[in-house]
Amino acid sequence: MQSLLKxxxxxxxxxxxxxxxxxxxxxxTSYNEYPKSSVLxxxxxxxxxxxxxxxxxxxxxxxxxxxxxxxxxxAQLRNRLAELENLIEDSVEQTAYQYAHLxxxxxxxxxxxxxxxxxxNYLTINKGRRDSLYQGMGVRNSExxxxxVTTVSERFAVVIPIVNTYSKISAKFLKNGYYATVEWxxxxxxxxxxEDVASHMDVAKGDTIVTSGLSPVFPAxxxxxxxxxxxLGEGDSYYTIRVRLQxxxxxxxxxxxxxxxxxxxxxxxxxxxx
Length: 274
Hints:
By secondary structure, the chain is an alpha+beta fold. The strands form two sheets. Strands 1-2-5-4-3-12 form a six-stranded antiparallel barrel. The chain has a six-stranded antiparallel beta barrel with strand order 6-7-8-11-10-9. The chain starts with a helix and ends with a helix.
């Protein structure tokens, strides 16, 4: 108590000045409309700014949950689409082989590691054996084909993307169903080559290339690429074709792993046939 009294006595003039300033300010804002409105407006701006900052911070931390939810919803929508396609195919009595290729579901996953500047690029996803992943599964995203699962651990999986010189994806022209193969030449992650297109084919810039559905890895008609350049030299039997890949690998964050329910059965039959 003695110390408090000494403090008040020592700074009494300053404290009286502060009290008088506060009283004067209250009188000014209470009985004069313009200063009063100015003070209220300024305080409202400050409060609104604080709320906006708080909301922005909260929104940032909600992004991961939102992205995860969107991926799960995308996978559910793809699964529902596959079911509807099954019903359509069944209603027109398509063959059992075509029907089987539509019997699949999608498992959402996040890309946790990726390279695009090497000859043998790989990407790692955060789903593994405990999530029912196995070697040979196709991987796609909302844009198109990503690659094929090559190695699986308990919680993770490694994927060979299209942008790997070991990668070969069975493809076809959307406009006429003519089969071809998409391969990467190891140069630019945005482009690849379209092989095995005979010179008698009608080929044009802008043609859409999709998956062929000839293997259990990918269902038919998933977007793959669009023809960028076409060249046919005199006497050539096959076109030289450069395609622009539908998937932008530099922006790849989330994918869906395709689980073909008849994969092992089809794969086993193909191996015996060979």
